[in-house]
């Protein structure tokens, strides 16, 4: 497993790496099978809720097992760690990347905590992502009704003062699906790109029209996070099995269809993000 900095190196050439949020073994297998089929590096992202539910060891070892059958680079990333405890735990447990999300805090506190994460991560040779600005919607079961777009000047200050390697920005996307078409603030994204040198991340990638995703990547987004669309693909796989045969009880048939759903969706996103090797 490689670091976020390593996996994002080269994205300035006009592509982005997919951050795919996973929950269990079938998710991990689906993402890795897609990465292998499409010959693309991928970021396997996990939030706190599945970590608590499955246990950190089960999930890390699932990814390590998947890595053995994989010829493309993988990065194991903690997504939206909103407290230092979980971030430090994942660093110590062997994640190759973490995101600290202090976007719910006043900027001074966000900076102070992010600095602590950068220091701790450096001891393990990893390069964290952090967020400035707020996205609306539901992520990891937590709802945020507030939205605050990232200010380009503040973004520069945040990166300079914390020393983070990767910055998540708020430019009009949200977590979850949208009512109508999301309007991305491309001018703001351009301004941030000009002020800040580190790779930029677009969270809330589900339901954003392909043309907007492409434009964001052309402006300088290096990593696109996708969660909700994978949940839907997983569930549709299972529903499809029972629509065809309501009496199906074999776990491999049911979960196999869910895994196939994840694989197909991830291949579609890799094509959109142009990250094929
Ligand atoms: P979506 O669920 O909207 O795809 O967002 C995922 C995300 O940003 C995870 O960090």
From TrEMBL:
Q: What class of enzyme is it?
A: lyase
Reading the lineage from the top rank, the first entry is: Bacteria
Active site: which residues? Answer: 79
Record carries keyword GTP-binding: no
Metal-binding listed as a keyword = yes
Q: What UniProt keywords apply to this chain's record, in alphabetical order?
A: Lyase, Metal-binding, Zinc
The record's EC number reads 4.1.2.13
Identify which cofactors the protein needs according to its UniProt entry: Zn(2+)
User: Where, by residue number, does Zn(2+) 1 bind?
Assistant: 80, 175, 203
Q: Which InterPro entries match?
A: Aldolase_TIM, Class_II_FBP_aldolase, FBA_II
Which Gene Ontology terms describe the biological processes this protein takes part in?
carbohydrate metabolic process
**Which residues hold dihydroxyacetone phosphate?**
176, 204-206, 225-228
Q: Which CDD domains match?
A: TBP_aldolase_IIB
Which residues fall in a coiled-coil region? none
- SUPFAM superfamilies found in the cross-reference section: Aldolase
Any idea which positions bind Zn(2+) 2?
Answer: 101, 131
Kindly state what the record says about how the cofactor is bound.
Binds 2 Zn(2+) ions per subunit. One is catalytic and the other provides a structural contribution.
According to the UniProt entry, its GO molecular function terms are: fructose-bisphosphate aldolase activity; zinc ion binding
The cross-references to PANTHER family, in alphabetical order and at most eight, read: D-TAGATOSE-1,6-BISPHOSPHATE ALDOLASE, D-TAGATOSE-1,6-BISPHOSPHATE ALDOLASE SUBUNIT GATY-RELATED
NCBIfam families assigned? cbbA
Question: How is this protein named in the record?
Answer: Fructose-bisphosphate aldolase class II
Q: Which organism is it from?
A: Halanaerobium saccharolyticum subsp. saccharolyticum DSM 6643
């Amino acid at each position: 497993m490689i670091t976020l900095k390593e996996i994002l190196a080269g994205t300035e050439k006009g592509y982005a790496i997919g951050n795919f949020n996973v929950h269990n073994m079938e998710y991990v297998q689906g993402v890795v099978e897609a990465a292998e089929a499409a010959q693309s590096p991928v970021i396997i992202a996990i939030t706190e809720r599945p970590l608590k539910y499955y246990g950190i060891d089960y999930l890390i070892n699932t990814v390590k097992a998947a890595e053995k059958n994989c010829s493309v680079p993988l990065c194991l990333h903690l997504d939206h760690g909103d407290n230092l405890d979980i971030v430090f735990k994942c660093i110590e447990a062997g994640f190759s990347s973490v995101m600290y999300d202090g976007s719910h805090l006043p900027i001074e506190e966000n900076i102070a905590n992010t600095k602590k994460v950068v220091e701790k991560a450096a001891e393990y040779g990893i390069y964290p992502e952090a967020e400035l600005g707020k996205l609306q919607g539901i992520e990891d079961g937590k709802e945020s009704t507030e939205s605050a777009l990232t200010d380009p000047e503040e973004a520069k200050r945040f990166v300079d003062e914390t020393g983070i390697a990767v910055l998540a920005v708020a430019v009009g996307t949200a977590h979850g699906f949208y009512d109508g078409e999301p309007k991305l603030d491309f001018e703001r994204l351009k301004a941030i790109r000009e002020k800040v040198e580190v790779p930029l991340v677009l969270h809330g990638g589900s339901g954003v029209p392909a043309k907007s995703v492409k434009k964001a990547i052309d402006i300088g987004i290096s990593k696109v996070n996708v969660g909700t669309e994978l949940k839907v693909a997983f569930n549709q796989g299972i529903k499809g099995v029972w629509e065809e045969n309501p009496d199906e009880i074999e776990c491999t048939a049911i979960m196999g269809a869910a895994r196939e759903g994840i694989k197909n969706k991830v291949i579609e996103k890799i094509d959109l993000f142009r990250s094929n090797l």
